[in-house]
Specification:
Blueprint lengths: L7 H19 L4 E2 L1 H8 L3 H9 L11 E2 H11 L6 E6 L3 H8 L8 E8 L8 E2 L2 E5 L13 E4 L3 H13 L4 E4 L12 E4 L2 H14 L8
Length: about 210
């Protein structure tokens, strides 16, 4: 399902809302209001209502949101109603940590393959997959893999991205600290940990505070 004129910041916050709804539901809350969700997540109730307004009526005024229904609605908005197969390129320290992370499953992400160019890593089992030689990545053309994770040095990131695009990957999560060019049909999200860390001193010196998802 597609929606028009939805700000990227709103899309960024939707997974946060999904996680909050799930936690509150697990705590036995079958119905919640925007304030209770905001209090749990550390954001404003106004922001939640504004973000939800882009997607129609997700709840009832004065009544709130049915947590089970809201969970399904947000999953549909984010296209998480089906599982997504993921390929990881780069199994160094960061890549190994990614393979060990168990939180992807709750959103329907399954890393089905991992590739590297290091002979000391190739053929070894990392997490639940055996690492393959990156030169064999073209074999994934026969599989239904639509998402890729890049965890390689900056110097190799663009080349890896080009390969992922050539085999039909539609979305890329990039951890390399470099700008990557991809066709408009491919969505890429870059997470530069050093840059994110560099933001913190500003808020420390200015005395400004941040919300949970800024």
């Amino acid at each position: 399902m597609r929606y028009r004129k939805v700000p990227d910041e709103t899309v960024r916050r939707m997974p946060l809302y999904l996680r909050g709804v799930r936690v509150l539901s697990e705590r036995g809350q079958s119905n919640i209001c925007s304030k209770s969700l905001a209090d749990y997540l550390g954001v404003s109730a106004w922001q939640i209502r504004k973000d939800f307004s882009y997607f129609g009526e997700l709840g009832k005024p004065g009544v709130g949101y049915d947590t089970s229904k809201l969970d399904k609605q947000i999953r549909r908005i984010l296209n998480l109603v089906r599982s997504h197969s993921v390929v990881l390129i780069g199994v160094g320290n960061l890549g190994s940590a990614i393979l060990s992370f168990t939180g992807f499953g709750q959103y329907g992400f399954n890393i089905i393959a991992a590739f590297d160019c290091d002979a000391n890593v190739i053929g070894k089992k990392k997490g639940h997959v055996v690492v393959d030689d990156v030169s064999e990545i073209s074999r994934l053309k026969k599989n239904s893999v639509d998402l890729g994770i890049i965890a390689v040095p900056a110097s190799a990131a663009q080349e890896i991205a080009d390969v992922l695009v050539s085999i039909g990957i539609k979305g890329i999560l990039n951890f390399a600290p470099v700008y990557i060019s991809v066709p408009k049909k491919v969505k890429i999200v870059t997470i530069d940990i050093a840059i994110e860390l560099a933001r913190l001193p500003y808020y420390m010196s200015s005395g400004q505070s941040q919300g949970a998802w800024e």
